[in-house]
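Expect chain and fold; see below:
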Amino acid sequence: MNYNFIAIEGNIGAGKSTLAGKLSTDYNARLVNEQFEDNSFLPKFYKNPDKYAFPLELSFLAERYQQMKNVLSSGDLFHDFIVADYFIGKSLVFAKKTLQPDEFALYSRLYTIINTTLPPPDLIVYLYMGIEQLQANIRKRGRSYEQEIPDEYLEQIQESYFEFMQQREDLRIVVVDANNIDFVQNPAEYERLKKIIFTPYEKGIHRIKP
C-alpha cells in the first residue's frame, strides 16, 4: 500500500521529529515539522497554565492549520510523499486536557470548521512510551521550558491521545510500543520499525509490540 501522507504522533518527548526526519531522508519524503518553538505562549503556559492555556491552544491550531493547508494544497514534483511530525488532531488532544469545559466547547467548534478543509493522513504512527522514558527524553534534549513538566500532565495527555484514537475508526492508526526500541542509535531496530510502519493496514487501530 502506498501512503501519500504519514503523520508521526506521540506524547511530549516520544521522538516524533527524530523519526519523521529519518523517514524523510530514507524515502525522499517532504518533511513537515511543527514550529512549536516559535510559539511565544508555550513557555508562559508551562509557568501559568490556567492563564495561558486558551491563547496557546488557539495559536497552535492556527499555526498547524496554516502550515498543513500550505503543504497539502501545493504540488511537489521532487518528493514521493509527505511525512509530518504531527497530526492536526493533536489540537483536540491537548485542548481537552488544558482548557475549561466552556473554552473547550468553543475550541471544538472552531476545530471542526477548520478540520473539514484538510485531508486526513493516510497513516498515523503513534509512538507509545511510558512516563519515565518520556521524562528521560525530555531531560536529554534540554529545552529549559520543558524541564518542569509534571508526570501528571504527561499522563493526562497520554490518556487524551488514547481517547481520541478510540473515537477515530475512520483513520489508519498504528500504536507502536517504543519503550524498548532505540531507532536513533540502533540501525537494526530502526529497520524493524520501518517495516512496521510500511506494512499495509486497514482503517482502525493496530497495536504493535515489537
User: Anything to note?
Assistant: The mean pLDDT is 94. The two ends are 21 Å apart (CA to CA). Strands lie at 5-10, 29-32, 81-84, 123-128, 172-177, 204-208. Residues 5-208 form a domain with the Rossmann fold fold (CATH 3.40.50.300).
